[in-house]
Amino acid sequence: MWKAYAFLSALARALGHAGPALLSVVTLIVGWEAYVHFSGISPTVLPAPSRVLAQAYEHRQTLAGHGVATLQATAFGFASSLLAAFLFSLLVDFFPQLRRALFPVFIITQTLPLIAIAPLIVLWFGFGLMPKIVLVALITFFPMLVALVQGYAATDRDIEALLASMGASRWRIFVTARLPSSLPYFFAGLRISITYAVVGAIFSEYAGAARGLGIYILNAKNNFRPDLVLAAVLVSSTLTLALFGATVLIQRAAMPWTRLSEESR
Amino acid sequence: MTGAGLELRRVRKSFDDRPVLDDISLVVRPGEFVSIVGPSGAGKSTILNLLTGRLTPDGGEMLHDGVPLASGSYRFAFMPQRDALLPWLRIIDNTTLGLEVAGMKRKAARARVAPLFAEFGLDGFERHFPAQLSGGMRQRAALLRTVVQGKAVLLVDEPFGALDALTRTQMQQWLAAMWMRHRWTVLLITHDVREAALLSDRVYVLSARPARIARTIPVWLPHPRPAAGSPEVATVEAEILNTLFNPEF
């Protein structure tokens, strides 16, 4: 009973927070709908939101199939990016001289224009899952690495001195102090990178793929169906928001001490 | 010449030809409460870093029970400035940290620490995170973490500097009472002159950098000393202050 009440009040609070955002989104959609109706603009130029929704519903099975493909590319690409970022952050933390050797290379990867590199990666890795994984990893790897390395550096010096006085090894200090210290930075990086990851996956599909929202958008555009383009955009935005929400939930679960200290203040 | 306890003899330390410690000699006998007071930047932290093994001296000797301190021996329990509790560990895990790092199994470490929670006024807070505790409670948890390691000497660095004045006085009284009961061997680093006068058996006053022992002030007053209004403590305070302000005095 008490739990149900707590859940409801939390829900009400969340809605209260979301209220202004919800209002502006609704206003935007209503304005758009009204404009399409009263201007008489052709639906092949600007479809009304109601039409986009109706078409999205009608093509829901196709969209879902392509959405799953994009989600797959995002998940595999982002997972390999996280793994690589963590391994390199370990290397850089334990061998700081490596930082000067590696970081310039990583920075250069961030300067590559996607529009040029995506077709090349498709050329090299084919039309399957691999080029998407590579492109998503390429986009998200460096921000995650920087977040982790900065997080390690933010460790409280007193805590490190304390552990050293206890005879803790370098590895023990890393696991007990440096790694938990990096969590807020890690999650800040994660929230930004996960949105890049979806965009990256769609972009690589756009450059050439058998399945995925990117190739769906390309085909819809070539068939003069902006309503279907927007329906795919709706799916990808929903996907991104869901992933973003998941990172927030994971952070809350992974860092219970921050939540508790907020409540006691 | 040699004896039980901790002894520093003519210890010197420089950083890049910049001398920080010029000539430090001091003694902490078992069961004694000894303080080092000095102006800020005088090299108090350097002394602690030498004792915790983070730094090695350029010259002089550091002895414990007459035996030179080897690097990597970790004989002393260190209580850093502020409280340095790990925010992501519950209080019980913070207090067992030293034991676990030393290789004790978590269960055994908890069994060792658990009975002390009541005495340290932390009963019922085992599962709390540090951020949920008041400043005074956090300091008591930090001291519990320090003493439970069972090391020969407690090295305590400015423990109450971050607390408000009232809490600080309470914590000093509490520490005095705890020390009377347990007779730990304590080396306290502080710039709080009142704290040194209230708690210590002996006070070493450092000169400005490069640091020497400007003066050794024995405090013969019985423990515990009243928090307020004791003319004897005030005399000791005045003596320490005079040395700090007129090192050649």
From TrEMBL, chain A:
Protein topology in the membrane: Multi-pass membrane protein
GO terms, biological process: transmembrane transport
PROSITE patterns: ABC_TM1
Subcellular location: Cell membrane
Pfam families: BPD_transp_1
Spans traversing the lipid bilayer: 75-95, 102-127, 133-154, 185-207, 228-250
Record has Zinc-finger as a keyword: no
Descriptive protein name: ABC transporter permease
TrEMBL record, chain B:
Domain of life: Bacteria
InterPro entries: AAA+_ATPase, ABC_transporter-like_ATP-bd, ABC_transporter-like_CS, ABC_transporter_ATP-bind, P-loop_NTPase
Signal peptide start-end: none
SMART domains: AAA (SM00382)
Pfam families: ABC_tran
Gene Ontology MF, one: ATP hydrolysis activity
Keyword terms: ATP-binding, Nucleotide-binding, Transport
All copies of domain ABC transporter, residue ranges: 6-233
Keyword Plastid: no
Family assignment from sequence similarity: Belongs to the ABC transporter superfamily.
Protein name from the UniProt record: ABC transporter ATP-binding protein
